[in-house]
Amino acid sequence: MTAEDADVLIDTSKPHPARVYDWLLGGKDNYLVDQEMGEKLPPEARANAARNRAFMHRAAAWLADNGVRQFLDIGTGIPTAPNLHQIVQAIAPECRVVYADNDPIVLRHAEALLVSSPEGATDYVQADVRRPAAILDHARELLDFDRPIALSLIALMHFITDDEDPYGLTRTLVDALPSGSYLVLSHGTTDEHPELANSVTDTYKKGQVPLRMRRRDEVERFFEGLELVDPGLVTATHWYKETPAPKAELSGFYVAVARVP
């Protein structure tokens, strides 16, 4: 496990998305500043975080069940069991997983918690999706880019503003993947909670955390040129395959899995 910059310190003066998300999921690896932001978010935020996490579980399991053995998870967040590698290695112990996040606290927890099965491997890099080349360079040390890889961008790209080129960043990552790979993406939206749009945006803005919720057509652009897996681009509780249907509920996330042709 390596860091972009070994001297980077944890900044507890302002909230960080990974730690706020940890709080929303009921975790304890966050600080007062993160808790204060989480408490200012609408009550629906906690349920939406749980629905988004459940989508990740279903998507990862489906991919492993269908032969994918390599995973690149960017925007990992603070490890919350079961983690992605635990899900896929329970199905195929030889799976290899590379995690990446830009919050130094994630590195500290990753060293202790992201422990692979003996047959497989996990690795972690402290890096930012805004520097995709650095992530890809590190991932190549563990993953074979001649074989299919599942790229996971869960609850991440809505923290990338339009001027940071979220579509270009995603394309750079996807273009590095071989045919037969997959993009797994979930993205924040207020399409089903329009009455909460201003409240959510203002809360993150006051916490100095950039946030760009996107409409369905805007999220769909992330999958241009890819083959959407049924049921396509849907809200979080409507994506499932062989598992029983989750309870259909309003969601703050669009989600999809798409194949690289």
From TrEMBL:
BP-aspect Gene Ontology terms: methylation
Keywords tagged on the record: Methyltransferase, Transferase
Pfam families to which the protein is assigned, alphabetical: Methyltransf_19
Cross-referenced InterPro entries: SAM-dependent_MTases_sf (IPR029063), SAM_dep_MeTrfase_SAV2177_type (IPR006764)
Top-level lineage group: Bacteria
Transmembrane segments: none
GO MF annotation list: methyltransferase activity
Protein name stated in the entry: SAM-dependent methyltransferase
Organism: Streptomyces longisporoflavus
